[in-house]
Amino acid sequence: MRIDRRRLVVLGAAGAAGALQPRLLRASAAPKRAPGSAGDDLPAREASWYKKLEEGRVECELCPQKCTVADMERGMCGVRENRGGTYFTLVHGRACAVHVDPIEKKPFFHVMPGEKALSYSTAGCNVECKFCQNWEISQFRPEQVQAYDLPPKALVATAKRTGARLTAATYGEPVVFWEYVRDAAAAANAAGLKPTVVSNGFIQEKALREVAPSLAAIKIDLKSFREEFYEEQVRGTLEPVLKTLQVIRELGVWLEIVVLLIPTLNDSVEEVRDLSQWVRKTLGPDVPVHFTRFHPTYRLTDLPPTPVTTLERSWKIGREAGLNFVYLGNVPSHPGENTTCPGCGEILIRRVGFRVIANNLVNGACPECSRQIPGVWE
Amino acid sequence: MRRLTRRELALMLGAGAIAGTTRAEGSGPVALPGVVGMAEAKAKLGRPLSREQADRVIAGAMAAAVGAGSGVEAAASIFTPGDTVGIKVNCLAGRSLSPRVELVEALVDLLAGAGVDRRKIIVFERTSRELERAGFTIRRQGPPYRCVGTDNDYDRLPSSSGAIGSCFARIVSTECTALVSFGVVKDHDLSGVSAGMKNWYGVIHNPNKYHQNGCDPFIADVARHPFIRDKLRLTVLDGVVAQCHGGPAYRPGATFELGLVSASTDPVAADLWAWQVIEAERRRRGMPTLEEAGRPVRFLATAAHHGLGVDHPDRLRLVTA
Ligand code: SF4
Fold this sequence. Notes:
The complex is a heterodimer of chains A (about 375) and B (about 325). Chain A has about 375 residues and is of the alpha/beta class.
């Protein structure tokens, strides 16, 4: 979901008594701290997933980019830096965007409907989608955005103060602040909150396995079902993302998938069918798939928004492939936003945009036919 | 390779023997493909040159680069009095391996001598902090020249060039009409060489995105963006002390006293020379070539392919002061 700079709000550091402060991101707009190109005036913490190489180099083992980084240089995400042969994350506990959102905005449609999620992000991303909706966070380095100290415990305290029952690492790319995600999840679980993550799924398996079990739910952006798309539009690869989806299912963590359909690039009948059939076959029919509408942004400004007819066609393809829960996104008031019982067709959760209008589930089951609906309902 | 003298270059220019030369008298800045001027400057690591020495070296390299009679004459053939000149220095490696302040100031004086308004000469780097660490004094308005970090003052929106999409520093996109890359001669762990062209990574907001595949085609893509391609007039390389391994950070055991400063209107040729110098030192030390070390210098061929300059050793002409 796009972070609008004008609407972006930061809930200050823990001690800021919850005062909501309007925030601009880029230092050119309102610099608060002197930038340091080498990052050595940024707070740093040793990274958890890397190995040391010869001559002071390191290899990052967090995501499939596998950056080899020389002394004083950073990995592709821009938030991890080699200082004298030790690798550091520069964004642990350094949130540049914090906001209370409805959980539907992530979007999670099978996770505690109508509840609020304290959503947070740092700078940086491990890929470069030409259509990134949050590029003003994700495509910048930590010293280029205004950030606040919000260590895990303070983050959880802020969530409780605002009435949020969930946390969500989102907006930018949580993989690049995975240590922060891990520690915030531990703090959230200890406080009885449900930690969630919204990610591109471009992560190495070991790091995923070490953190995912502590999460209540994960949403993965499956950006396409074609390697060429990942190469040309994302600067990543598809195969590790598919692996991530399988590992999440294997671990039993609640999973939802979002597919942003971009006219002419990833919206063909064949591709949507291939994707839907793969999900059905490999992950099962109960994984919700959200087909969402593209709007021109960042480096893809020469394409039109996705026609609603394309979304509806994709919805149909998903259902025909045997998926029980197919949704449409960024099309407020469309019936494709509702959750319907795959057993009897009863509308279970009625939504308009990110608002839940009616939730008819009874203990996670259909009130008509009693079919159990998968999800994290409490 | 035998080095030409400035006089020999002038004769060649007169005979039209440098292919692709632009600017006959008065028709725009001089551009001499493949020509790299150089002057000797001996100093130990960390020791400054005297100001007199710096003036002589910069004037000599500049004059040699364009076959001019003096440094001021050379500057006047490359820049106009109406220009706003941005001099991008590469200070990543700190005081030990950044362009020497006295050399940069000698260039500033030459430009001023050629009629460029000192208030329109901007020495800049990514951040003020890096400049200070390299020994520069921040001077937001001058005098005697401006010296500032871009400090995240980027264009609001990205623009694309080949594979890159970046917000450019406004100094480059908006303020300056002419640019100088003032780098050092050093090895780079990913691109193989960091001299004049890699220096332009310091004017985009997201250089970390473009380190794959030996920074190729990304270095060339940054350099062929109109903000740079249309404004870049000169590349100066401080090779008083160079580094043949372990870059881009300063690596004491890998530095060597090369004792040369180069100047060129051809950014590709300038880096080709730097590459040759680094390879020669590696050979002398019994080290593998950059290619054997797993970081072949690919970006020069790509840059030449895009018409940014000359990457073939046969067309490189080294001219001494
Ligand atoms: S997390 Fe960042 S540094 Fe690590 S491999 Fe991925 S892009 Fe590179």
